[in-house]
Amino acid sequence: MSKKKSRNCWPSILFIEKKLKNEDIDNQVVFCLDEDSQLKCLYIQTNFQADWFKNYDTIVHIDGTFKLNVENYLLYVLLVQDSNCHGRPVAYCLMKNETNENLEFFYKTFVEYNNVEFVKLVMVDKDLSNLYLIPNFFPNSVTLLCVFHVVKYLKSVVGKLVASQCLKNDFMESIHGMIYALNEQEYNDNYTELRERAKKFKDFLSYFEKNWHSCQKLWVRYFRQKLPTLGTHTNNHLESYNNNIKISIKPQSHLTECI
Fold first, then answer.
1. In the chain, how many domains are there?
2. Mean pLDDT throughout 30-37?
3. Residue 27 sits in the same domain as residue 140
4. pLDDT of residue 5
5. Going along the chain, which residue ranges are E strands?
């Protein structure tokens, strides 16, 4: 994004801030600028969104989505589930890029304006930055990986192996068995089966052991049996919400239109 475009956004963004504050003084709009005084992050939370979070703060879903504006700011959404298991967005953050610094701004700002003491679970995809940062801002919560993203990611990794489709299907069968294992023995049986099936793919097995087998609590079903998941193991509520946003907001929109 050019500096000219960024500067031209300011009058509209300031107008939006004023408009939101006029509607409700408790609406929160927080800016973060870079060293060139260009917009880096924009946090928005309305008062009714804050109330949603107060009422439904057990499990939090977090994810980002792209292609909502020509300036290429991505939108991070923090969402909860209401009593009918419907997704309710409780905070937004538009950020120039997905850096640790920008994510920290989002979480720090959210924590500043909301009591996160009673958040028990935070659901994310396998983004290492999120996995490391979240415990710092949601200290009483357990971080879980969205099972949909786990399957999608591992299927992508397996798909790149130089192996027959039949063998790849066998690998995924073992992986599915691990994901949905209801006890430790079931997990170990499927893990042993994967190691046998993939014994000629040592690099893949090393990768799996380092990045997945070592953090089973994040993605294996039987570790979640006593957690208040509300029957949810994915970020599908948030994915659905993001898809609806993309129907309303076209990639050709400017940042101020997106806001």
1. 2
2. 85
3. yes
4. 43
5. 28-33, 39-45, 59-65, 74-81, 87-95, 121-124, 142-145
